[in-house]
Amino acid sequence: GNSVTQMEGPVTLSEEAFLTINCTYTATGYPSLFWYVQYPGEGLQLLLKATKADDKGSNKGFEATYRKETTSFHLEKGSVQVSDSAVYFCALSENQAGTALIFGKGTTLSVSS
Amino acid sequence: EAGVVQSPRYKIIEKKQPVAFWCNPISGHNTLYWYLQNLGQGPELLIRYENEEAVDDSQLPKDRFSAERLKGVDSTLKIQPAELGDSAVYLCASSAEGTGDTDTQYFGPGTRLTVL
Question: Average pLDDT of A7-26?
Answer without folding.
Answer: 95
